[in-house]
Amino acid sequence: MKEQQPLNLDKCKELGKLEMTTEVVYTLNGMGLLAFFAFGFFFTSLYALFTGNIGFNYTGGTIFISVALFIGTFVLHELIHGVFMSKYGGKPSYGAGIAHYILPYFYATTKTIFTRNQFIVIAIAPLVVISLVVIGIMAAFPSIAHWMIIPFVINGSGAIGDLWVTRNILRYPKHVLLEDQKTGVIIYGKETDKPMDMSTTGFGSGFAKVFILSILATGFLMTIAPMILHTLGVESFIIGPTNSIFTIYEYHSIGEGFGFSFFPTSILATSVIVGLVYGIINAGRPGKHVMTG
């Protein structure tokens, strides 16, 4: 592997910090719970698609395997962070802690300075790698697909902090440099670069607004969709796995008429996902606050 040349902070100024403040910890906890629900729904939909089953059956060694997968997912998540830190010239160290006695966490950190895009790759690598591996295992080995719910959901909901960091970093120009710390990130840039608000303010209101709008919009669209599909002569249209509690929408032509059905749980889950994505993007949006320090 080609050795990465160290980056220089000369003539750079500190633009801001992403820190685990009490506000951030509480908000990330809320985001994580919503993400747990969203990734759980996404997993069970994929599970029904790959296996044709709706329920899960566990026999023999359930507790041992579950605990091993639970701990192993956190360890693998941080190791993947570390692998990509090493790729960009870092020497990662690992540990664990509890932020403000509220949020337990594992971490991989290094004293190396990274570019913005390098840090984004480091941040999202565990979510992408583990999710793709789990989906591949589900597709290739349906008989053990039910065990994949633990790494898929735990890794996905646990990556909310990484996504929040990525979202904030993307607001800065690509020339900024980042220094990773155990409980946050320091961002450096040019003298002409402006600091930005990186709080989590606005997440709750943004989530609630889009969650409600999503439910209303989905209900409206699913009500008028049958008339459009009937006019177009569509015989059948299904969103989601067929004949499953994870089906989102079904339409069937019946003689000269039509029938349709939609499922509240699926609409609720979809609205949670949309609201969560918007809430993360909306939190600390420029123009609401000015960050000092």
Oligomeric composition of the shown chains: single chain
Biggest β-sheet description = 4 strands, antiparallel
Strand share of the residues?
15-25%
User: How many structural domains?
Assistant: 2
Shape: globular
Describe it for me?
- By secondary structure, this protein is of the alpha+beta class.
- The strands form 3 sheets. Strands 1-6-5-4 form a 4-stranded antiparallel sheet. A 3-stranded antiparallel sheet has the order 7-8-9.
- Helix 1 (22-51) packs antiparallel against helix 4 (149-158), helix 3 packs antiparallel against helix 4 (149-158) and helix 6 (203-231) crosses helix 7 (264-282).
- The protein contains 7 helices and 9 strands, in the order E-H-H-E-E-E-H-H-H-E-E-H-E-E-E-H.
- Strand 8 (249-254) and strand 9 form a beta hairpin.
- It is globular.
- Residues 287-293 have low confidence and may be disordered.
- The two termini are 38 Å apart.
- It has helices at 22-51, 62-87, 116-140, 149-158, 160-169, 203-231, 264-282; strands spanning 13-19, 93-99, 103-109, 113-115, 177-181, 184-189, 236-239, 249-254, 257-262.
- The chain folds into 2 domains: 13-195, no CATH class; 197-293, no CATH class.
Produce a short descriptive summary.
The protein has helices spanning 22-51, 62-87, 116-140, 149-158, 160-169, 203-231, 264-282, and strands spanning 13-19, 93-99, 103-109, 113-115, 177-181, 184-189, 236-239, 249-254, 257-262. Helix content is 51%, strand content 17%.
